[in-house]
Structure formats: C-alpha cells, structure tokens
C-alpha cells in the first residue's frame, strides 16, 4: 500500500479471514435489494413492446405516444418521493427496517403489474416500484459503505449492481422466450419472477446486524462495538470484547466525527449547504447523480424497437435477442467495474465512462444522420450502429454505474448520509424523469441528431468531473471528511494521531 491507499490488482483477493467472509456474505445476501428492480426494469422495457401486452391493455397495435411516454419515466417520480421518505426511515428506524419496507413495496408493485387490468394500474405499479427503489437503493448503498473496509468499499458497494445484472440477463432470456408467445401467460410469468429476489431479501434481513454508525448515532455504544468486532475483528478476553487494531481505529475515528457533528449541529438539514465544505460535497453528490440522464439511454431503454427498426433491424425476436446479449455483457462489466473502483479509483472510472459514451454517441449520430434519417436501409450500417451501442453500454456499466450509486453514500458524514443521498436522488430522478419523458418527442423531431446532443452532454460532464471531483479510494469514511475540509475531518485527524495520510485537497 502506498501513502494514498494504492492497491495492486490482486490485493483484494488475499487476506481472507472470517471477518471479511462475514462482511461479504452479508452484503451478497443484501444485494438482492437491487435484483428486483433491475430485473423488472429489464422486463418492462421489453414487455411494453409486446403485442399481447398491448392488446391486453385494450389497444390495437401500439399504445399512443401520449401514454407510452409515461410508462418508462414515471417510476422516476416514485423514486424521487421514495428517496425522500426513505431518508426519514433510515435516520429514525435504521438501515434494516428501511430495506424491509422497500422489499414489501416491490412485491406490491409486482403484483399490480402481473395483474395489469388497465393502463392506470400499470402507472400506479410503476410509481410504487419507484418508491421501493428509493428505499432499497439508499438502504443498501448506505449500509454497504458503512460496514465495508476501506480497501474494498467500492467493490462490495457494487454487489447489488452485479447481482442485478445477472437477474437482468435472466429477464432478457425469459423475454426472448415469451416473445414467441401470443398469450398473456408469458409476460405475466416474466414479471412474476420479480417476487423471488424481494422475498429472498425479506428472509435474509433478520440475520443482518444494524449499521455500527447508525448504532453509535443513537447512543448504542456497546452494540456498535460488538458489530464492529464482528465485521472487522475482535477477541474475547475473560468475557471482555477487545477490538482488533483496525476495528478500534475505525471506532475512534467514527466517534470523533459523529460526536463533533452532533455537537456542532452538522447532522441537520442545513449542514448540506451552510459551509464551503458542505456546498462542495453537495455539488459533487448532486451533479454526479444527474449525469446518467444525459447518456442517450432515455431513448434506447424504452424505445429501442423504434431505434433498431430505423437501423434496418425489424425482426422483434432479433431485437429481444440483442437485448439478451447486452445483459450478458453487463454481468461481466459489473464485476470488473466494481473491482476497478478500488484499483483505479472513483474519478478515473467516472472519466472513462462518460468519455467513451461521448465518442460512441458521436459515431451513432453520424450513422443515423448520414444513413438512417435519409430512409436508407443499410444492413452493414445497422450492424455497426448496434455494435457501437453494445460497446458503449458495456463500458458504461463497467466504469460509470458502479460509481454513481455509491458516491453520495461515501462522501457524506454519518448524520447526513441518508438526507444527502435523498437530496441527490431528488435531482437524479427529477432530471431522469424530464429526459425520459421527453425522449420520445425528442427522437421523433431530432432523429439522428439526438445522439449528437447527448454526446455534447457527456463532453460537458467529462470536463466537470476532471476539474472538480476529488478522489476518495482507499480512505475510511472519516478520512473522506478530511478531503472535503469539514470540521469533523479535522477532529478525525486528531483522533488518529495524524496517522491518516490524507490532507484536505481538491484535484
């Protein structure tokens, strides 16, 4: 390890003790929190294209654009509300109960979608699903960063993305199969699989300990120390719990940071903006959560059959098959990208993710404007368009997705973590709704130029990240406080006896 917490490629594959195994088992179990909505998002994007589902809702061949453009983005409004409500539960009930509520809401939304008696019920189900995502996403990410070791926090925070991608692959395979069925049983069965991860999560949660930082915040000092011992090392000596050096150091830093924040009112809503450090931290969190909306996915995700048709790929089974191939590559990308977070760092992965997206979108725009928009059917160009699209999204899931879900949880202090993430989520889902709702009319009016527009957005994001974002890999959560120059960070320095190599810095 260097003085900046540098890791070699194989470091995280070594030093397996029972405490590390325990942490990984817990987080792999809880990663089911992301599987339900990852799976459902993959399924619904395909099912809304199916003639049997469209007919079941009472339409002839297609759902009118005025209604169709609501199905995809409306869950963003639910997630916006869910994230805000989740902040209250995370702060007052704990991380575990919040995930329980999220899993229950996911089961309710799934039941409504399987039923799908009308368009209104579908919209209601998507809103409820969005609320559940707010609970599950915030719950898992906050819990994961709070129990992880500093050297593998990026990797374990990505577990929910990795397992979600595997369920997404399952979804693509099932959808490809039911695309040959004209009955309602096929799409109902595909949607019904969403019950499985939500139910398994409810069975796992009773065996999971509460977050040690939440316990300390609530004055449960002894419980906090016991959980830290289980997670990061301890021994029993004549009935007394003795923490390992690593666990004791983390406890002292945690105590210093949380106590300072509580004594100085830095665990209140106003602490999100009432100082230069607070505004800098909130800027990074909010801006990072808004980038994903401008990557062109708002067009592809819900209208990919339209896009592929313009590229000369009109067979619906082939379109669903391409989606299955894409999900297979995402499974690999999620694992590689999560691991690289602790090797290359958050900032580097962000830059690669948005940089490659800009390049790929320019290529897609060139093909669309030069060929497809002119009504020319060119199979070679169509194959090139789809290939570039698959590469873009593989690299996006590899380098961008693992960072975006984790960063707000990592950069906020314990007392602000839930509320800071909630506010970031409001901006994320608000912008997401706007771009997804406008995606269909944008595509109808701009055609190929829509890809050039999104490429420009990615170039702007690249410059913003390069010039303003700090690096936080290899640091404890309390050392991250030092990077942003907070008062708690200075108290942490003193508590660690200057053992921390980190100093307040910006790139």
Automatic annotation (TrEMBL):
GO terms for molecular function: carbohydrate:proton symporter activity. GO terms for cellular component: membrane. The chain crosses the membrane at residues 21-50, 70-90, 97-115, 121-143, 155-179, 185-208, 350-372, 384-407, 419-437, 449-469. It is found in: Membrane. InterPro entries: MFS_dom, MFS_sugar_transport-like, MFS_Sugar_Transporters, MFS_trans_sf, Sugar_transporter_CS. It comes from the Eukaryota. It is a multi-pass membrane protein. PROSITE patterns: MFS, SUGAR_TRANSPORT_1, SUGAR_TRANSPORT_2. Belongs to the major facilitator superfamily. Sugar transporter (TC 2.A.1.1) family. This is Major facilitator superfamily (MFS) profile domain-containing protein. It comes from Kwoniella heveanensis BCC8398.
